[in-house]
UniProtKB/TrEMBL annotation:
<keyword id="KW-0963">Cytoplasm</keyword>
<keyword id="KW-0031">Aminopeptidase</keyword>
<dbReference type="GO" id="GO:0016787">
    <property type="term" value="F:hydrolase activity"/>
</dbReference>
<dbReference type="InterPro" id="IPR029058">
    <property type="entry name" value="AB_hydrolase_fold"/>
</dbReference>
<comment type="similarity">
    <text>Belongs to the peptidase S33 family.</text>
</comment>
<dbReference type="Pfam" id="PF00561">
    <property type="entry name" value="Abhydrolase_1"/>
</dbReference>
<protein>
    <recommendedName>
        <fullName>Proline iminopeptidase</fullName>
        <ecNumber>3.4.11.5</ecNumber>
    </recommendedName>
</protein>
<feature type="domain" description="AB hydrolase-1">
    <location>
        <begin position="32"/>
        <end position="286"/>
    </location>
</feature>
<keyword id="KW-0645">Protease</keyword>
<dbReference type="InterPro" id="IPR000073">
    <property type="entry name" value="AB_hydrolase_1"/>
</dbReference>
<dbReference type="InterPro" id="IPR002410">
    <property type="entry name" value="Peptidase_S33"/>
</dbReference>
<dbReference type="InterPro" id="IPR005944">
    <property type="entry name" value="Pro_iminopeptidase"/>
</dbReference>
<keyword id="KW-0378">Hydrolase</keyword>
Length: 314
């Protein structure tokens, strides 16, 4: 995409030794929208802006604790679900926004849904894709031997054999120790497994950066701690999600398989509508998935504009 100049760039001191990087793009008086990246720990990228009409939105790209350009990179201390949720609300207050839109994928979608259930009055609309269900089943699907491993056995064996362990818990602990030592083969194995699931049947890069290590560290940290009870929070708040919620899941999402999300939504008092994208993967590099998300984000913007025109919102 052509170079886009940011509206502003800031560093936000949230305490606990963390500095968060925030950059804003789009229309200064546009619909404020916080983009929630996945991972956890993946950070924001300029390519994320391709999802949004910058003539309508004021897009906030926030690198969560330890992720992207936030400092210190890969820091695990005071890096948990409640801290990330607190940062979201703190950011809204810092910016003086009464309400805003939220959008994001994977674990970013998980965070956004919990936040919207806790603070529904603050959310004008929200659009999420590739939603990660942070349950024991969601973790086992990714890292156990009976989930995605059954579909990609050779790749899983390569991931597992990067450390000396077998069962799910000891595998994650062994990876944690190796990642802390910055073992290149371990970083490569962790990232390769994740990318295999997100970009199936695609030629993957063989080089990995410091940012990849930071992401792997944070992902492993959250997985070892069972996502800090995010699933409990998600289920406790899901009946409070705003009406204007768009959920999209690729039918071939091997990171966050649709059946787990369907099972969770079935437990809502009034299940939120879910759009299954035929042939869609976890990654938005898959054109069908990206196009579906862009259309949903556009619909969300139209809905906010309609609410403003009818005087429902100021």
């Amino acid at each position: 995409m052509s170079r886009i100049e940011p509206l502003s760039r800031q560093w936000l001191d949230v305490g606990d030794g963390h500095l968060l990087h925030l950059v804003e793009y789009g229309k200064p008086q546009g619909i404020p929208l916080l983009f929630l990246h996945g991972g956890p720990g993946a950070g924001c990228h300029i390519s994320d802006l391709e999802l949004f009409d910058l003539q309508r939105f004021r897009v906030l790209l926030l690198d969560q604790r330890g992720a992207g350009k936030s400092q210190p990179s890969g820091r695990l201390v005071h890096n948990d679900v409640l801290s990330l949720l607190t940062d979201i609300e703190r950011l809204r207050q810092w910016l003086g926004l009464e309400r805003w839109c939220l959008a994001g994928g994977s674990f970013g979608a998980t965070l956004g849904l919990i936040y919207s259930g806790l603070c529904p009055q603050r959310v004008l609309g929200q659009c999420y894709w590739g939603i990660f269900v942070p349950s024991a089943a969601g973790r086992s699907w990714l890292y156990g031997s009976q989930g995605a491993a059954k579909r990609f056995p050779v790749d899983y064996r390569g991931w597992r054999d990067a450390v000396s362990a077998n069962d799910e818990d000891t595998l994650l602990q062994a990876f944690a120790q190796a990642l802390q030592r910055s073992e290149l083969k371990t970083v490569a194995a962790w990232c390769h497994w994740e990318r295999t699931l997100a970009h199936p049947w695609t030629l993957l890069p063989t080089e990995y950066s410091l940012a990849d290590r930071s992401c792997a560290l944070i992902e492993n940290h959250f997985a070892r701690h069972h996502y800090f009870d995010a699933y409990v929070l998600l289920k406790a708040t899901m009946d409070s999600w705003p009406t204007h919620t768009w959920l999209l899941q690729g039918e071939q999402d091997w990171v966050c398989p649709p059946f787990l999300l369907k099972q969770m939504l079935a437990e809502q008092t009034q299940p939120t509508a879910l759009q299954l994208v035929a042939g869609g993967h976890h990654s938005l590099m898959e054109p069908r998935m990206q196009q579906a998300v862009i259309a949903a984000v556009r619909e969300m913007a139209d809905n906010v504009a309609q609410l403003a025109n009818t005087g429902v919102i100021a």
